[in-house]
Amino acid sequence: MSILFDSLSFTYSDGLKPVIDGLNCSIDRSGITVLTGASGCGKSTLLYLAAGLYPENAGSITGGRVLIEGRDPAGLAPPQRCRLAGMMFQNPELQFCMDTVRNEILFCLENISVPPEEMDGRLHSALGFCGIEELEDRTLLSLSGGEKQKAALACIVAISPQWLLLDEPFANIDDESARAIASSLGRLHREKGIGILAVDHRLDSWMGIADTVLAMDGGRIMPERIDARDIDPARLESLGIIVPGRSYSPSIPVPSPGETVLELRDLSVRRGKEELLHGITASFRRGMAYAVLGESGAGKSTLFGALSGIFPYKGKALLEGRDLRHLRRREAGRIGFITQNPQDQFVGGTVRDEMLASLRNDPDAAGRSEEILRLIRLWRYRDISPYMLSQGQQRRLGTAALIAYDCRCLVCDEPTYAQDRRNTMAIMDSLCREARERGIALIFSTHDRQLAADYADEILMLKEGKLHAVAESSL
After folding, report:
1. Which residue range forms the structural domain that includes residue 349?
2. I want to staple 261 with a disulfide (CB 3.0 to 4.6 A). Which of 39, 133, 371, 441 is the partner?
3. Distance between CA atoms of 162 and 160, rounded to whole angstroms?
4. Are residues 57 and 150 in the same domain?
5. Number of H helices, E strands in the chain
6. For residues 157 and 129, is the Cβ–Cβ distance under 8 A?
7. Do 66 and 168 fall into the same domain?
8. Has residue 127 been placed in a domain?
């Protein structure tokens, strides 16, 4: 009862270095295994191969094989495949098909021919497992990033496969929810014998739940199996894992606050009959970094969506004294946005084109684009589509492209989502340095309280539709 990777090699394209290179590993269903390692080292690719989604949908196996419970998942029809292994994508939007949470789960159950009389029971059991009963009739488009992750997990739990393959399952979920879901996953494993293989850069939610930690590097899994109940924090750091409570040791200049660049006055956002945000008043100054915290679904993405023009709002949002709603098209670039899903913002056909689009007014655009891509370790991918990058690499590209953009205020929705420790530090150091040196007001959301404490000059908490200042000592 295991997942077997037998001398496995995989590449996305001829001529590119293999993403998986001669990998040998067996993962037993008797324990919960967490796979970690640097962003872009092949962790998500390995899950796609175990789920049988690759090489059917991308790339090719150039050597070896994958077996799950003794069967080749890629050779199975979808209904048989998803009973064997259910995969939760790092970006849940890529796997949704229907309009509401309820219909999405029922659609999954129909695809594996669950009898109609059993569907409601399995639906409500899965909703309860993830603690999202109140989301049953919500549209998927209206959910926050964290709520979408919970809905995606509920779909897989409803199917009840032999294996759960989870790609960064808590990346957009607040700590309390993550711990509750991890505890439920542990109980599911113990009571039903379902195997769990999860990719994660943060292990705090898995402490006391997971049995084994495996580290991946350079397309291979390191031979050392780490006991998840006895982990040395220094060892975690050496593997690029984010250690709870340990400072990121930011390398950024001291702030020199300038004048107010963005001001919110009694801002409110309503969806249907529900007022999601109300009476938000805040000001953001040049050269300063602001962290926005809050539980999953608290309204962080809604607030940022209002600033970007996605959601209508009442009240005032003034950029350099002018209402955001009245900015002309040519002036809209004075406020930049890094979205929770980096694919939403790509405009270039290749990685290099994406950088050049942001640097179009720079006389040395070619040189600067190479410099930035080397800095974020994407130069080798310069001639491929941004959509062929891993989620973590896409996040780095999207962030770097916006950093290069000429704006007065930069709003970042979870900029370090799905990043290892080194890339988290590189992204935040770059963002804060640019804010300091160019006089930009930087506003970012995060669930990582240590990140907020280390990088933010002011910390704000979004709770019950209102924005409150928070002292670092209370985090």
Report:
1. 260-474
2. 441
3. 7
4. yes
5. 13, 19
6. yes
7. yes
8. yes
Does 189 share its domain with 226? Answer: yes
Residues 217 and 270 in one domain: no
Handedness of CA 217, 219, 223, 227 (dihedral sign): positive
Reading the chain (475 residues) residue by residue, the pLDDT tens digits are 689 999 999 998 776 778 899 999 999 999 999 998 877 788 889 999 999 999 988 889 999 999 999 999 998 988 889 899 999 888 888 889 999 999 999 999 999 999 999 999 999 999 998 889 999 999 998 888 788 888 998 999 999 999 999 998 888 788 888 888 888 888 889 888 899 999 988 888 888 889 998 988 878 888 778 777 777 777 777 777 777 778 888 888 888 888 999 999 999 998 777 888 999 999 999 999 999 999 888 889 899 989 988 889 999 999 999 888 887 666 666 888 888 777 878 888 999 999 898 888 788 889 988 988 887 778 888 988 898 787 778 888 888 887 777 788 999 988 888 788 888 888 899 889 989 998 999 999 998 999 999 999 999 999 999 999 887 766 6
Look-up of token digits 């962080």: 300
If DSSP codes are grouped into helix, strand and coil, which group holds residue 46? helix
Name the domain count of the chain: 2
CA 33/CA 403 separation, integer angstroms: 36
Look up tokens 């370790």; give the residue. 377
User: Which of these three, 180, 208, 238, is where a domain ends?
Assistant: 238
Question: Cβ(217)–Cβ(206) under 8 Å?
Answer: no
DSSP annotation string for 343-354:
GGG---SSHHHH
The reply to whether 40 and 128 lie within a common domain is: yes
Burial of 396 from C-beta contacts in 10 A (0-12 / 13-18 / 19+): buried
Q: Report yes or no on 134 lying in a domain.
A: yes
375 in the same domain as 232: no
Query: 249 lies in a domain?
Result: no
- Do 362 and 302 share a structural domain? yes
